[in-house]
Every structure is written in C-alpha cells, then in structure tokens.
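Fold this: Peptidase C-terminal archaeal/bacterial domain-containing protein
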Amino acid sequence: MRKIYTTILSLSLCFVFLFSTTAYAAAIDEAETNDSPSTAQLIQANNEDPSKIISGNYDGQNVVVGNITSTADEDWYKVYLPANSDTILGINSSSLSGSSLFEVYDENLNLVRGVPYVSNSAYFGATPFYVNIPTSGYYYVKVSSTLLTGEYRFYIGGPDYALNSYTYNATSAVTLTPTIKSVQATYDLTNITSIPRDAVVYYVSLQGTKVNNATNQYRSIKVAGDSTWINTSSYTYVANVPAISNKRVRNQWTFKLDGTVSTSTKYFNLTPQIKFSYIYPVLPQ
C-alpha cells in the first residue's frame, strides 16, 4: 500500500519547503490509498496571512507531499475552496516535470482546470497557476503521470507570499538651512519593473549621505497624495509599516526631512537612501 504524506509547513520562507529543506509543524502518514474520488485524502486549502509571515508565523501555509509510484498510479485529494476566480494551484516536482498532470474537478467530477506541469525557472520552486473556482464547495485534485515517477508537492487556495527589499538612491540632496527647517522631495518608483506590482511595504529605512549636521532631526515618508506620514524613529530612522495598510512599493513616494541648522553650520545636506522591505504574493506571470 502506497504512503502519501501531507505536510503542513511552517517556520520557512517563501515556501522553501516546496523545493529544499523543510521546517514543518506536523506530518501525517496516510495509511489508506487515495487512488479514486471515493478514497480521496482530505486536505486543507492554503491560507497564508501576509501580516503573520512578516513576523515569521507561517500558520495557514499548507502543502501536500506525495509520490507517484507508477504510470498507472493516480492520487486524489479533496479540499474545500471558496469561490474565487484567482485561486492558486502551486506545483513543484523535479521528478515529474514534463510528464505529470494536475487536474481540478468539482464535486460532481466535472473538470475545472487541467495543468500539464513543466517546471519554470522563473520561480524559485513552486510554479503557480490560476484556477477559476466558480462556487464555494468541495473540489478534487487529481495527480497522475504518463511517463515518469517520483515525488511531487503542491498547494491550492490562496497564494504563497515572498519577502524582498528594494533600495532607492536619490541623485540629489535635500537641504536644510537656518531658515529652512523642513524640506520635501518626491521620488517615482512606479516603473521599477524589478519590484512586483503587488508588493506591499512592511518596513522602511530612511538613511543617506550627509554633509554637516542638524539637530532635532526627523525623517518621514508617505505615498504621494496620502495625508498621513510614516514617521521613523529618532536616530535610527526606521519604521514598521502594517501590511494591512496596503502601501504599494511601486508608487510615487514623498520624503520629508525636518531639523534645525545653526547659523554657524549654515546648511545640512542629505542625499536620501531609502530602503523598502516588502511582501508580495507569488502569482502566475
């Protein structure tokens, strides 16, 4: 009797468990076969919370680990999914690339989406595919292979999330003087294609190159057009930004410098270096 493993993974980054070493909370060794819809293994949909992932909590991150033992082998899974045209099926299998077929069926066994899986080097591990789930209910995922055998991993439901950062280096300085105590500059990041469009800021660091000094110095930033500033801490000039505030990195950003310059110092120059740490959903291209 073939063994199927369902692994609910946590304490990992960007579904690293899908393609390298894994850190997981629990592993269930399925003792019964799941080679038909009637014996399908019940699994949980992926349901990651980006606000938790930022702090290292991967509760809700669910992945199935299985094995195709022959070309006659079929693995069936059953999962409850809410209606969503952008449901994600993420697949990773170096063993079955080019040979496996992942199929999603509704509860009446009508085919919803078939995915002939081929690994995609554009993704670090699991390749995501959209599945249109028209109504909430139970669905089946069937895994098969026409030629190759081996291990596979997949998740279905909400997207996986990844973390990254981008540093913007201003090309000119902002200047304070004894009579100018506050100055602003706006920087356009809307066309930075290396940043995913759905990337959301969760941390900013407002550093830069200084000439001279200013006292009572404060540095802030906001999305241009917003009424509320993101105020950084004194001296370190960093701030956490709640992911739920949905501040997209690819925006126009307004930087503000406040401070006092003595008459003897004459001026204070700062050429801003702004680091945006962000989280983004890993979506089909």
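The CA atoms of residues 215 and 260 lie 5 Å apart. The mean pLDDT is 90.
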